[in-house]
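Query structure, 191 tokens:
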């Protein structure tokens, strides 16, 4: 697994000062902020969580396609020899791709669905950050629908992704005894 320093170096190398890098930094910062709270109920590798949050959108150095950037990130991270981080790049798309969906986009014919706590958290936090600011899931999915109305594949699976996000957010909220969404939004006030 990548160290925080190695992950940062990869982001700088492939992202330079691109606008999408701000989103990656915000997702990693939120992951760091939430980790102590969530780790009371879940075992978390905080360095892996942070590094994968930082690199989840690394494929945007190749494309901004809503699915394709996850595929490009997977391919890049595999080329660099980081298979666990590559999996997060692919699995954060739509809260996971089934094997047939993955294969349709050139990924190996296997399920790319976040399973580990860190993988689920990266995906969930990604949905709670619009550009570099915390938002509600409702607002984020509304934005995704507006921006991707012309992408039939992505648009048609947003309901499924939103249900998964709500399910995991409710699960984590129950475990930590407070609304994860409210914790994320209250952190925005402190920024």
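Result returned for the query:
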């Amino acid at each position: 697994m990548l160290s925080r320093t190695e992950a940062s170096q990869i982001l700088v190398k492939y992202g330079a000062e691109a606008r999408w890098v701000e989103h990656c930094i915000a997702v990693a910062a939120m992951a760091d902020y939430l980790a102590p709270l969530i780790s009371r109920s879940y075992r978390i590798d905080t360095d892996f969580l942070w590094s994968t949050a930082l690199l989840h959108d690394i494929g945007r150095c190749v494309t901004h396609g809503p699915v394709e950037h996850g595929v490009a990130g997977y391919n890049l991270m595999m080329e660099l020899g980081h298979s666990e981080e590559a999996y997060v790049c692919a699995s954060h798309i739509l809260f996971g791709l089934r094997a047939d969906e993955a294969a349709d986009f050139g990924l190996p014919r296997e399920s790319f669905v976040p399973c580990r706590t860190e993988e689920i958290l990266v995906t969930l936090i990604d949905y709670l950050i619009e550009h570099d600011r915390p938002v509600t899931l409702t607002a984020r999915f509304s934005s995704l629908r507006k921006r991707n109305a012309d992408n039939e594949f992505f648009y048609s699976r947003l309901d499924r992704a939103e249900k998964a996000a709500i399910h995991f957010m409710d699960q984590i909220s129950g475990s930590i005894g407070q609304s994860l969404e409210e914790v994320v939004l209250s952190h925005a006030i402190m920024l």
